[in-house]
Amino acid sequence: MRFITEHRARWGVEPICRVLQVAPSSYYAAVSRAPSARRRRDAGLRAAIRRVWDEHRRVYGADKVWAQLKREGVRVARCTVERLMRQLGLRGVVRGNTRRQTTLADPAQDRPADLVARQFRAPAPNRLWVADLERHEALLNRAVMKGHRRRSIAVDCRS
Q: What is the total count of domains within the chain?
């Protein structure tokens, strides 16, 4: 409906509705309808979330904002606070290093030869095989949890 409202001055409501295969009466009904209860409540919660976030030096994440609102007597689900903070573009401060480095390259080691010159398209089937070997932590953890001691390696082969 927002698209129709934004472009109605240029093309008119009926031609846009015809292209989008929407009845014009549906558009007019949606425009004249009062905001839903969720939308009204979200508007009030957005102001409360912004206030709590600002009062606490803009470092609180969704969990702490939710806990503060709960202390103030505002009944709201944590997932609602998370959703509204995402919409408002608010984030809490993350302690420590946020980047997770899975492999550390040793510059002294020789790199494997690039035998395909980064051309991964084969002229015909079974002419070029490329394998992507990865160590998947989830697979390793499952194997250890079940009592197995073997290592799991996932192989993705494409021709």
A: 3
